[in-house]
Request: fold
Amino acid sequence: MKLLNHLTHPQVGQDFQEWVSLHQDYPYLLNEAALLFESGRYKTLHKTIVVQAPEKLRIERVLLRDPHRSEADIRAIIQKQMPEEEKKARADFILTNDESQMLIPKYWPCTSTCAKWSKSAFL
Reply:
């Protein structure tokens, strides 16, 4: 897995930088990445948003999305990831996606703040 990550993450980063250069006219750009902190990609960004959900709900969602995985498989993957509390401590914005409230209204304050920054802050 370390070899796969070593080979994959630099290419993903290069692809993102190419994508950024093609979209320079936008007021801000977003980079969605499941392993943003673990891969070190957060270091190339000016601000980060962590979307969190209760572990039970995350497991249910993965089971629906990836029926070939067992709950034990998913828990093993989660155990290898950075703890949620550490991600939240590193985040500039935290959004909770627990199905108790609509997510988009929570997202707008992030976009309003980002829109105030110059586009050069994201390149």
